[in-house]
Please model this.
Amino acid sequence: MDRFARWVVRHRKLILILSVLLLIPSVFGAAGTYINYDILTYLPKELDSMVGEGYLENDFNMASTGMITVENMTTADTLKLKADLEQVEGVKSVMWTSDILDVTTPKEMLPADLQKFFYNDSGATMMLVQFENPSADKKTMEAQHAIKAILQKNCFIGGMSAILEDTKNLVNQEMPLYILCAAGASLLILFLSMKETMVPLLFMLGMIFPISYNFGTNYFLGQISYITEALATVLQLGVTMDFSIFLLHRFEEEKERGFEDEEAMVQAIRKTFSSILGSSLTTIAGFLAMCTMTLTLGADIGLVMAKGVFLGVACTITVLPALLMTFRKSIARHTHRTFIPKLSKTSRFVVKRRVPILVGFLLCFLPFAFAQAKVPVYYTIFDSLPQDLPGIVGTNRLKEDFGMTTSHFIIVDDSLPESQLENLTEDLEQVGGIQQVLSYEKFLGAGIPRQMLPQEARDIFEAGGRKLILANSSYESGSEDQNEQLAQMTKIVKSYDPAGVITGEGAMTKDLIEVADVDFRNVSITSILVVFLIVAVVFRSASVPVLLVAAIESAITINMGIPYFSGAVLPFVASIVIGTIQLGATVDYAILMTTRFREEMNLGRTAKEAAQTAVEQCSQSILTSGLTFFAATFSVSLVSRMELIGSLCRLISRGALISMAVILLVLPALLVLTAPILKKTTFHWIQPQKADNMQRQLQKG
Model:
């Protein structure tokens, strides 16, 4: 490592030139990365709901549909609107009653179920828009945008594809604001904690490189979710900034020992690398643990963030030293007073009051441990969006005017006799909360000959050797009522056709709930195990990983228990990923503290002296890092209109503060009390050669 550090310091200009050149392909890679706005597409493909989505897309060519509510318009204006919509690129068809009967025919001639589907009692009517591509496809998004521009004040478009297009627009609007807030808040903390005025600017400049490389290399993943896109910059900034802080503080410490700038940087890179490596490995492993999720959104976030941490480490030991050495003269000229001190008094207090601190912490921990399991969770992502978005407004109109809160698509084999199809339809109509059931036979009705029904209408209900039945529900997706409703419907459908499936937003959300419950347990266990093993290998200890993981997990438990007392409802994603993010992002504080404690013990100090010095010397780094992480994420939570992003950022920011407090106050007390155990269960916890050297120096003195 010494040779590498000297090479970095010696070739700093070459490193900066190569780093800048690599930004060029990164920009093109980021621009070419597909962003997926549909979370439900991350469900396992073998689930019935996803199999059904495949049937809708491949057989029925109903990759996505939208429903337009038209209020108080004449028949002529409605027909003109229909014609305009059919001209939109990406729209396959627009279905209205004019496709079934001549517009001069009274609507009362339609079958009763068809009248109920297309009209309501207050004079509103509905059109069914069928798109050529899936809901989250770029062409469908563009078609949605064009449709919204065509619609008049008394027209509203609803459905999943409309809401996804709103989500895309909102993310694109807010992303620059997220980055601006995170960068600005981080700079403020860095300015307060560092005496060199230029260093925070160099830190932020240095972060541009790994963040750009991370977004550029996402191109090779094929796609990333909009949640990953929105959080990646903020998380990478908060998670990897502490590597830069650790390096700088060690560099300043080496300069205080009398080394010249270049030699001080060599020593800083060499001595910081082990703690950065251990910290980064645990962080990377924590994020990679999310790849064990059945919901592949976990792998999406996990891979991007693990890659980001790796790139952050690489840039911390190459680009950042090059920047600091290149601008070292300017850095030395511009200084100011710091406002985040070393916690000298706190270090003495922690060591002196270690037993009361641990007892008090345990008493505080217990209620949060019980509360964590009782925090309410929501699974409908659309509920986390601003309710004034056009797609949300349009979907709410469908609920109000037509009772179409959710639509279920039931797909069965077309070999099913017509008599059984009629019985199946009647059985589905008897399920509680089902407002209406439509099938091919319902479209024909008593007065419409089969040959008079347009091919478009027939293709909607019969295709690919399968038949489609549409059931409208008055229950909301993700609610207990709808999940029970779907369970009853599935039992009925399977009794007629064992291969029959139910799909749609409601069925997919139900599957999401079941998958998320399993994923929460898997990710939690996996992240704890991998972090435990890495810490065990880094310290060559059986007891150190128990201590460190227990400290961070207790902080996570407190963080996740707070919403119960505040009355907050969390998005399902939070319950799965927050623990992993907080563990991976803040365990490096514990590693830094423990590494310094061990280092002081090896210099011949007692456990109390070692803990006091460790707190005093590490406090500034941990405070700066933790407050930077807090500021970056909390500032985003204040400006985000997306409750999902806001909730995640609030939890992450609060978790950073709690972990920081636990590491500065509780962990040192634990280190002192367990020092004899650490010595016996760790390979070469005290290295004899270092201790002997210290004793000889003391005797000479």
